[in-house]
Amino acid sequence: MRSRPRAPETVAVAAGRPAATPGGPLNSPITLASALVPGGDSEYARHGNPTWTDFEAALGALEGGRALAFASGMAATTALLELVPPGGTVVAAAGSYYGTTSQLSERVRRGQVDLRLVDVTDTEAVVRASEDAALLWLESPTNPGLDVADIRTIASTVSAAGTAVAVDNTFATPLRQKPLELGADFVVHSASKLIAGHSDVVLGAVVTNDDRAYRALASRRSSHGAIPGALETYLALRGLRTLHVRLDRAEQNARELSSRLALAPQVTGLRYPGFGTIIAFEVAAGPVAAQKMTEVSRLITYATSLGGVESTWERRRRHTNEPVDVPESLVRLSVGIEHVDDLWDDLAAALDVVG
User: Fold this and answer.
1) Is-contact 136 163, C-beta < 8 A?
2) What residues bear N6-(pyridoxal phosphate)lysine in this entry (predicted)?
3) Per-residue confidence at 2, pLDDT binned at 50, 70, 90?
Protein backbone atom coordinates (compact mmCIF):
# COMPACT_ATOMS: atom_id res chain seq x y z
CA MET A 1 0.00 0.00 0.00
CA ARG A 2 1.31 3.43 -0.99
CA SER A 3 2.23 5.44 2.14
CA ARG A 4 2.58 8.85 0.47
CA PRO A 5 0.93 10.76 -2.37
CA ARG A 6 2.41 10.25 -5.80
CA ALA A 7 4.98 12.81 -6.87
CA PRO A 8 3.85 15.40 -9.43
CA GLU A 9 6.19 13.91 -12.02
CA THR A 10 4.41 10.58 -11.65
CA VAL A 11 0.98 12.21 -11.76
CA ALA A 12 1.89 13.94 -15.02
CA VAL A 13 2.68 10.57 -16.57
CA ALA A 14 -0.04 8.41 -14.99
CA ALA A 15 -3.17 10.55 -14.55
CA GLY A 16 -5.93 10.61 -17.14
CA ARG A 17 -5.13 7.24 -18.71
CA PRO A 18 -7.73 4.66 -19.77
CA ALA A 19 -8.49 1.79 -17.42
CA ALA A 20 -6.05 -1.06 -17.93
CA THR A 21 -7.94 -3.73 -19.82
CA PRO A 22 -6.63 -6.64 -21.90
CA GLY A 23 -6.11 -5.40 -25.43
CA GLY A 24 -7.03 -1.85 -24.46
CA PRO A 25 -4.99 1.25 -25.37
CA LEU A 26 -2.26 2.51 -23.07
CA ASN A 27 -2.85 6.10 -24.14
CA SER A 28 -6.11 8.00 -24.35
CA PRO A 29 -7.39 7.81 -27.93
CA ILE A 30 -8.56 10.81 -29.93
CA THR A 31 -12.35 10.85 -30.10
CA LEU A 32 -13.21 12.44 -33.43
CA ALA A 33 -16.99 12.53 -33.25
CA SER A 34 -19.58 15.30 -33.26
CA ALA A 35 -22.33 13.05 -31.89
CA LEU A 36 -22.10 10.50 -29.10
CA VAL A 37 -24.40 7.59 -28.30
CA PRO A 38 -27.10 8.66 -25.79
CA GLY A 39 -26.91 7.41 -22.23
CA GLY A 40 -23.46 8.69 -21.27
CA ASP A 41 -22.21 12.01 -19.96
CA SER A 42 -22.77 13.75 -23.30
CA GLU A 43 -24.72 13.18 -26.50
CA TYR A 44 -23.16 16.03 -28.47
CA ALA A 45 -19.48 16.86 -28.66
CA ARG A 46 -19.96 20.55 -27.85
CA HIS A 47 -20.97 19.46 -24.36
CA GLY A 48 -18.29 16.87 -23.76
CA ASN A 49 -15.66 14.67 -25.37
CA PRO A 50 -13.72 11.75 -23.86
CA THR A 51 -10.44 13.26 -25.04
CA TRP A 52 -11.17 16.42 -23.06
CA THR A 53 -12.05 14.33 -20.02
CA ASP A 54 -8.66 12.60 -19.91
CA PHE A 55 -6.70 15.84 -20.32
CA GLU A 56 -8.82 17.51 -17.65
CA ALA A 57 -8.28 14.59 -15.27
CA ALA A 58 -4.50 14.86 -15.63
CA LEU A 59 -4.28 18.64 -15.31
CA GLY A 60 -6.80 18.65 -12.46
CA ALA A 61 -4.77 16.04 -10.59
CA LEU A 62 -1.63 18.16 -10.95
CA GLU A 63 -3.31 21.38 -9.82
CA GLY A 64 -5.41 19.75 -7.11
CA GLY A 65 -8.84 20.60 -8.53
CA ARG A 66 -11.33 20.03 -11.34
CA ALA A 67 -10.14 21.22 -14.74
CA LEU A 68 -12.05 22.43 -17.78
CA ALA A 69 -10.35 22.72 -21.17
CA PHE A 70 -11.15 25.67 -23.44
CA ALA A 71 -10.36 26.60 -27.03
CA SER A 72 -7.58 28.99 -25.89
CA GLY A 73 -6.17 30.70 -22.87
CA MET A 74 -8.23 33.78 -23.70
CA ALA A 75 -11.39 31.67 -23.97
CA ALA A 76 -10.68 30.36 -20.47
CA THR A 77 -10.03 33.89 -19.22
CA THR A 78 -13.23 35.22 -20.79
CA ALA A 79 -15.37 32.47 -19.26
CA LEU A 80 -13.95 33.20 -15.82
CA LEU A 81 -14.40 36.97 -16.10
CA GLU A 82 -18.03 36.42 -17.02
CA LEU A 83 -18.62 35.08 -13.50
CA VAL A 84 -18.09 38.63 -12.19
CA PRO A 85 -21.54 40.16 -11.50
CA PRO A 86 -22.52 43.33 -13.45
CA GLY A 87 -20.92 46.37 -11.88
CA GLY A 88 -18.53 44.26 -9.83
CA THR A 89 -14.96 45.31 -9.17
CA VAL A 90 -12.00 43.39 -10.56
CA VAL A 91 -8.53 43.92 -9.16
CA ALA A 92 -5.78 42.84 -11.54
CA ALA A 93 -2.02 42.83 -11.77
CA ALA A 94 -0.87 45.96 -13.59
CA GLY A 95 1.72 43.89 -15.42
CA SER A 96 -0.70 41.24 -16.66
CA TYR A 97 -0.65 39.80 -20.15
CA TYR A 98 -2.05 42.40 -22.54
CA GLY A 99 -4.80 40.06 -23.73
CA THR A 100 -6.16 39.95 -20.19
CA THR A 101 -5.89 43.70 -19.58
CA SER A 102 -7.46 44.40 -22.99
CA GLN A 103 -10.38 42.13 -22.09
CA LEU A 104 -10.81 43.93 -18.78
CA SER A 105 -10.53 47.39 -20.33
CA GLU A 106 -13.23 46.49 -22.85
CA ARG A 107 -15.54 45.46 -20.02
CA VAL A 108 -14.86 48.74 -18.29
CA ARG A 109 -15.77 50.68 -21.47
CA ARG A 110 -19.05 48.76 -21.62
CA GLY A 111 -19.82 49.59 -18.00
CA GLN A 112 -19.76 45.92 -17.00
CA VAL A 113 -17.03 46.09 -14.34
CA ASP A 114 -14.87 48.50 -12.41
CA LEU A 115 -11.14 47.85 -12.64
CA ARG A 116 -8.28 48.53 -10.27
CA LEU A 117 -4.71 47.76 -11.36
CA VAL A 118 -2.16 46.94 -8.68
CA ASP A 119 1.52 46.09 -8.30
CA VAL A 120 1.39 42.41 -7.32
CA THR A 121 4.69 42.69 -5.45
CA ASP A 122 3.07 45.15 -2.99
CA THR A 123 1.07 42.72 -0.88
CA GLU A 124 -0.51 45.35 1.34
CA ALA A 125 -1.64 47.43 -1.65
CA VAL A 126 -3.18 44.37 -3.30
CA VAL A 127 -5.10 43.52 -0.13
CA ARG A 128 -6.36 47.10 0.31
CA ALA A 129 -7.51 47.31 -3.30
CA SER A 130 -9.36 44.00 -3.00
CA GLU A 131 -11.44 44.82 0.08
CA ASP A 132 -14.75 45.15 -1.80
CA ALA A 133 -13.79 43.42 -5.05
CA ALA A 134 -15.63 40.53 -6.66
CA LEU A 135 -12.46 39.10 -8.21
CA LEU A 136 -8.74 39.46 -7.75
CA TRP A 137 -6.82 38.43 -10.87
CA LEU A 138 -3.18 37.62 -10.27
CA GLU A 139 -0.39 36.62 -12.59
CA SER A 140 2.66 35.26 -10.85
CA PRO A 141 5.10 35.59 -12.48
CA THR A 142 3.61 38.36 -14.60
CA ASN A 143 3.99 38.54 -18.37
CA PRO A 144 6.41 40.01 -19.36
CA GLY A 145 7.71 41.75 -16.24
CA LEU A 146 8.12 38.52 -14.21
CA ASP A 147 6.87 40.05 -10.96
CA VAL A 148 5.99 37.49 -8.28
CA ALA A 149 3.07 37.77 -5.85
CA ASP A 150 2.79 36.39 -2.32
CA ILE A 151 -0.26 34.33 -3.26
CA ARG A 152 -0.68 32.62 0.10
CA THR A 153 -0.75 35.84 2.14
CA ILE A 154 -2.93 37.70 -0.36
CA ALA A 155 -5.42 34.87 -0.87
CA SER A 156 -5.85 34.11 2.82
CA THR A 157 -6.63 37.76 3.53
CA VAL A 158 -8.90 38.74 0.64
CA SER A 159 -10.79 35.44 0.57
CA ALA A 160 -11.90 36.06 4.15
CA ALA A 161 -13.58 39.24 2.88
CA GLY A 162 -15.42 37.37 0.13
CA THR A 163 -13.18 38.18 -2.84
CA ALA A 164 -12.57 35.34 -5.28
CA VAL A 165 -8.94 34.86 -6.30
CA ALA A 166 -7.82 33.69 -9.75
CA VAL A 167 -4.18 33.01 -10.63
CA ASP A 168 -2.77 32.72 -14.13
CA ASN A 169 -0.29 29.90 -13.59
CA THR A 170 0.97 29.66 -17.18
CA PHE A 171 4.59 30.59 -16.45
CA ALA A 172 4.99 28.64 -13.19
CA THR A 173 2.98 25.51 -14.10
CA PRO A 174 1.64 23.22 -11.34
CA LEU A 175 5.14 21.77 -10.98
CA ARG A 176 6.45 25.02 -9.52
CA GLN A 177 3.34 26.51 -7.94
CA LYS A 178 -0.13 25.23 -6.96
CA PRO A 179 -2.34 28.27 -6.41
CA LEU A 180 -5.33 26.27 -5.14
CA GLU A 181 -3.17 24.93 -2.30
CA LEU A 182 -2.08 28.52 -1.60
CA GLY A 183 -5.70 29.63 -1.17
CA ALA A 184 -6.76 30.69 -4.67
CA ASP A 185 -10.20 29.80 -6.01
CA PHE A 186 -9.27 29.46 -9.68
CA VAL A 187 -6.20 28.60 -11.73
CA VAL A 188 -5.97 29.65 -15.38
CA HIS A 189 -3.59 28.28 -18.01
CA SER A 190 -2.67 29.06 -21.54
CA ALA A 191 -2.02 25.38 -22.15
CA SER A 192 -0.56 26.36 -25.52
CA LYS A 193 2.62 27.16 -23.64
CA LEU A 194 4.54 24.91 -21.24
CA ILE A 195 1.70 22.45 -20.65
CA ALA A 196 1.53 21.32 -24.29
CA GLY A 197 5.13 22.36 -24.80
CA HIS A 198 5.74 21.94 -28.53
CA SER A 199 4.38 25.12 -30.12
CA ASP A 200 1.72 23.18 -32.04
CA VAL A 201 -1.40 23.66 -29.90
CA VAL A 202 -3.77 26.50 -28.99
CA LEU A 203 -5.61 25.53 -25.79
CA GLY A 204 -6.66 26.96 -22.43
CA ALA A 205 -7.89 25.65 -19.09
CA VAL A 206 -9.47 26.69 -15.80
CA VAL A 207 -9.09 24.63 -12.61
CA THR A 208 -11.23 25.08 -9.49
CA ASN A 209 -12.55 23.27 -6.44
CA ASP A 210 -15.76 25.31 -6.38
CA ASP A 211 -18.45 22.98 -7.73
CA ARG A 212 -20.92 25.77 -8.41
CA ALA A 213 -18.33 27.80 -10.33
CA TYR A 214 -17.25 24.66 -12.20
CA ARG A 215 -20.79 24.10 -13.43
CA ALA A 216 -21.14 27.75 -14.43
CA LEU A 217 -17.88 27.65 -16.38
CA ALA A 218 -18.84 24.40 -18.09
CA SER A 219 -22.17 25.96 -19.08
CA ARG A 220 -20.45 29.02 -20.57
CA ARG A 221 -17.99 26.87 -22.47
CA SER A 222 -20.81 24.91 -24.02
CA SER A 223 -23.22 27.75 -24.74
CA HIS A 224 -20.53 30.04 -26.16
CA GLY A 225 -18.85 27.29 -28.15
CA ALA A 226 -15.44 27.99 -26.61
CA ILE A 227 -14.57 24.33 -26.87
CA PRO A 228 -11.21 22.75 -27.61
CA GLY A 229 -10.60 20.46 -30.55
CA ALA A 230 -10.08 16.78 -29.83
CA LEU A 231 -6.70 16.74 -31.60
CA GLU A 232 -5.46 19.81 -29.72
CA THR A 233 -6.50 18.32 -26.39
CA TYR A 234 -4.84 15.01 -27.24
CA LEU A 235 -1.59 16.78 -28.11
CA ALA A 236 -1.72 18.83 -24.92
CA LEU A 237 -2.14 15.69 -22.84
CA ARG A 238 0.77 14.08 -24.66
CA GLY A 239 2.85 17.17 -23.96
CA LEU A 240 1.84 17.17 -20.30
CA ARG A 241 3.37 13.72 -19.89
CA THR A 242 6.87 15.18 -20.36
CA LEU A 243 6.32 18.54 -18.65
CA HIS A 244 8.64 17.72 -15.76
CA VAL A 245 11.63 16.73 -17.89
CA ARG A 246 11.16 19.64 -20.29
CA LEU A 247 10.70 22.12 -17.47
CA ASP A 248 13.72 20.88 -15.52
CA ARG A 249 16.00 21.16 -18.55
CA ALA A 250 14.71 24.53 -19.77
CA GLU A 251 14.79 25.96 -16.25
CA GLN A 252 18.38 24.82 -15.80
CA ASN A 253 19.23 26.60 -19.05
CA ALA A 254 17.36 29.72 -18.00
CA ARG A 255 19.23 29.97 -14.72
CA GLU A 256 22.58 29.67 -16.47
CA LEU A 257 21.69 32.16 -19.20
CA SER A 258 20.41 34.59 -16.59
CA SER A 259 23.73 34.38 -14.75
CA ARG A 260 25.66 35.05 -17.96
CA LEU A 261 23.36 37.88 -19.03
CA ALA A 262 23.93 39.58 -15.68
CA LEU A 263 27.56 40.09 -16.73
CA ALA A 264 26.81 41.32 -20.26
CA PRO A 265 27.45 45.09 -20.65
CA GLN A 266 24.76 45.34 -23.35
CA VAL A 267 22.07 44.22 -20.89
CA THR A 268 20.24 46.19 -18.24
CA GLY A 269 17.12 45.61 -16.16
CA LEU A 270 17.56 41.84 -16.07
CA ARG A 271 14.52 40.01 -14.68
CA TYR A 272 14.44 36.34 -13.68
CA PRO A 273 12.41 35.17 -10.66
CA GLY A 274 14.71 32.24 -9.90
CA PHE A 275 12.43 29.59 -11.41
CA GLY A 276 10.70 28.93 -14.68
CA THR A 277 11.83 29.25 -18.28
CA ILE A 278 11.26 32.94 -19.02
CA ILE A 279 13.86 35.71 -18.81
CA ALA A 280 13.23 39.38 -19.52
CA PHE A 281 15.87 42.06 -19.98
CA GLU A 282 16.39 45.45 -21.55
CA VAL A 283 18.97 46.26 -24.18
CA ALA A 284 21.03 49.25 -23.07
CA ALA A 285 21.39 50.61 -26.62
CA GLY A 286 17.61 51.09 -26.92
CA PRO A 287 14.59 49.67 -28.74
CA VAL A 288 16.04 49.71 -32.25
CA ALA A 289 19.01 47.68 -31.07
CA ALA A 290 16.72 45.34 -29.11
CA GLN A 291 14.61 44.69 -32.20
CA LYS A 292 17.68 44.11 -34.36
CA MET A 293 19.12 41.68 -31.84
CA THR A 294 16.03 39.45 -31.93
CA GLU A 295 16.06 39.41 -35.72
CA VAL A 296 19.71 38.43 -36.26
CA SER A 297 19.80 35.35 -34.05
CA ARG A 298 20.15 32.02 -35.83
CA LEU A 299 19.19 29.51 -33.13
CA ILE A 300 16.83 31.48 -30.90
CA THR A 301 13.70 32.03 -32.98
CA TYR A 302 12.13 35.47 -33.37
CA ALA A 303 8.52 34.66 -32.42
CA THR A 304 5.78 35.84 -30.10
CA SER A 305 4.88 32.57 -28.40
CA LEU A 306 6.70 30.80 -25.60
CA GLY A 307 6.98 27.62 -23.56
CA GLY A 308 8.05 25.27 -26.36
CA VAL A 309 11.07 23.01 -26.55
CA GLU A 310 12.72 25.60 -28.79
CA SER A 311 13.97 28.97 -27.51
CA THR A 312 12.13 32.07 -28.73
CA TRP A 313 12.38 35.79 -28.08
CA GLU A 314 10.89 39.10 -29.08
CA ARG A 315 10.83 42.79 -28.18
CA ARG A 316 7.46 43.09 -26.47
CA ARG A 317 6.68 46.70 -27.36
CA ARG A 318 6.64 45.83 -31.04
CA HIS A 319 2.99 44.98 -30.34
CA THR A 320 0.88 48.13 -30.50
CA ASN A 321 -1.41 46.95 -27.70
CA GLU A 322 1.39 46.11 -25.27
CA PRO A 323 0.99 48.27 -22.11
CA VAL A 324 3.01 51.49 -22.22
CA ASP A 325 4.67 50.70 -18.89
CA VAL A 326 6.57 47.84 -20.57
CA PRO A 327 9.99 49.29 -21.45
CA GLU A 328 10.54 49.93 -25.17
CA SER A 329 13.74 47.88 -25.22
CA LEU A 330 12.49 44.94 -23.13
CA VAL A 331 13.11 41.52 -24.67
CA ARG A 332 11.25 38.45 -23.42
CA LEU A 333 13.26 35.27 -23.86
CA SER A 334 11.56 31.88 -23.58
CA VAL A 335 14.31 29.36 -22.94
CA GLY A 336 14.04 25.91 -24.49
CA ILE A 337 15.84 22.62 -24.02
CA GLU A 338 18.75 23.09 -26.43
CA HIS A 339 22.31 22.82 -25.13
CA VAL A 340 22.95 25.89 -23.03
CA ASP A 341 26.32 26.67 -24.64
CA ASP A 342 24.76 26.74 -28.10
CA LEU A 343 22.08 29.09 -26.79
CA TRP A 344 24.67 31.33 -25.22
CA ASP A 345 26.80 31.42 -28.37
CA ASP A 346 23.76 32.57 -30.34
CA LEU A 347 22.68 35.07 -27.70
CA ALA A 348 26.16 36.53 -27.26
CA ALA A 349 26.61 36.88 -31.03
CA ALA A 350 23.32 38.79 -31.25
CA LEU A 351 24.37 41.05 -28.39
CA ASP A 352 27.68 41.73 -30.12
CA VAL A 353 25.81 42.92 -33.21
CA VAL A 354 24.12 45.68 -31.20
CA GLY A 355 27.26 46.59 -29.32
Assistant:
1) yes
2) 193
3) low
